[in-house]
Amino acid sequence: MSDSLHQSVWNRVFIALISKKLTRFCLLILLSYVLIAVFTKIGWLAANWNTEVGASYEAPNWINYFGTDILGRSVLLKVIHGIEVAMSVGCIVALLVMVIGVMLGMLAGYFGGIVDEVVVWLYTVVGTIPTMILLMVVACAIGKGMQSICVGLTLAAWTDICRLVRGEVMRHKCREYVQAASAIGASNFRKLFVHILPNILPLIICEVSVVLQFAIKYEVILSYLGLGIQNKPSWGIMISDAKTELLQGIWWELFFSTMAMFLLVLVFNILADALRDALDPKLKG
């Protein structure tokens, strides 16, 4: 595919995303989450989340907008730290899944034979293991924390993108542009990464957006179960702490942490659908 054609594809995607008010709003929300995560990571935001800012279980007010927890800490600052944790886990897992799944899928689809058989056997075996069981085994094996979450989620999520890439490479390797590259002496590396990969990149990007949602949701579940993030705020930990507080009428920690997660997952869902519609010509018309 020529550079001009690639440019037209991404121009079409950009126009499709900014042409609708809903997707523009979702992009703005996503950018806000990213900036909050970055600023929190480098210590510019919510660095003093563990400091007492009010009375225990203080309801939302003009001083503490999201109220306080049992120790008088700001729920708002804890939610902000939860954004940093969720975005960090999502981005790390998506990157690892993309590298592992794309590489194995391309090798299996292009070379076939024993390479294909090994990769297919591998993702079939891993795919039969229930996700929660796999995540719990990894947490018990290497301990709790972000490292355990990222390793477990990567092991659980790479199979789908590998299967997708394998099928697309098998379909593309017989096309005329790949045969033309072979005729002029292009190496396998060049055919894979210069000719085939750019043509399947849109599908990969759509699949990565699904992985991001998957990683964020399961990070919250693992933290809720006590197998995830330790010694720092997470939406899952906040939800776990709040389940007993509801009996006392203390709703704000559960409400704000849940709404922060709901909004992020909703934004990813809407943008993933918009990307799919813009990148898949079969859906047009």
From TrEMBL:
Topology within the bilayer: Multi-pass membrane protein
Q: Which Pfam families match?
A: BPD_transp_1 (PF00528)
Instruction: Say if the entry is tagged with keyword Membrane.
Output: yes
Q: Which UniProt keywords apply?
A: Cell membrane, Membrane, Transmembrane, Transmembrane helix, Transport
- What GO CC annotations are associated with the protein? plasma membrane
Domain ABC transmembrane type-1 span(s) in chain numbering: 83-272
Q: Which SUPFAM superfamilies match?
A: MetI-like
Where located?
Cell membrane
Q: Which family is this protein grouped under?
A: Belongs to the binding-protein-dependent transport system permease family.
Identification of the protein by name = ABC transporter permease
Give the species: Candidatus Cardinium hertigii
